[in-house]
Predict the 3D structure of the following.
Amino acid sequence: DGGITQSPKYLFRKEGQNVTLSCEQNLNHDAMYWYRQDPGQGLRLIYYSQIVNDFQKGDIAEGYSVSREKKESFPLTVTSAQKNPTAFYLCASSLLAGGHDNEQFFGPGTRLTVL
Amino acid sequence: AQSVSQHNHHVILSEAASLELGCNYSYGGTVNLFWYVQYPGQHLQLLLKYFSGDPLVKGIKGFEAEFIKSKFSFNLRKPSVQWSDTAEYFCAVNAWAGTALIFGKGTTLSVSS
């Protein structure tokens, strides 16, 4: 089955700790994205990557970091510098970034709670 | 900068009522337009999309949307809602020259049987 997997589904972290959220896709998509979803806020872009070894900051990148060493994988690290990390995190991918017809496909999400 | 505005935060309807959810965007160039739906406990999934051509697009589960370029709008409609349509609906836009989608804040639809 082609798709996007995110793990873990639920994650608990103590304040001051870094934590890494996993995102893997087997759709052979070039572009991958991380969004944060908060109630009443919609989805806000954290980082995106158009191609391996390249990524750009989104609207709310402060306190987050990413890597794109492989086409299939785009892990997100939530650092201790992120002031309000408790949220639902969604990973997405699209065949290409920008241009015509760049429908994004979403993973099931990871709910992060900082204790 | 692009932005997307969804007019209604929470809509409550009875089964068989008609639905229209408003979406307006701000961007002067060519855009791709999307409506996504998030059913309780499920992935965000695509309802329908517009790239070019006929401004009235049909999606899954009887939903349709109309792109009105002069009004920068892409409203979602369904003639008769069902209880199973209870979900959160997101409008999203991206410019052809851009990369990531810009999402609206979402509209929660509650349908009572």
The mean pLDDT of chain B is 92.
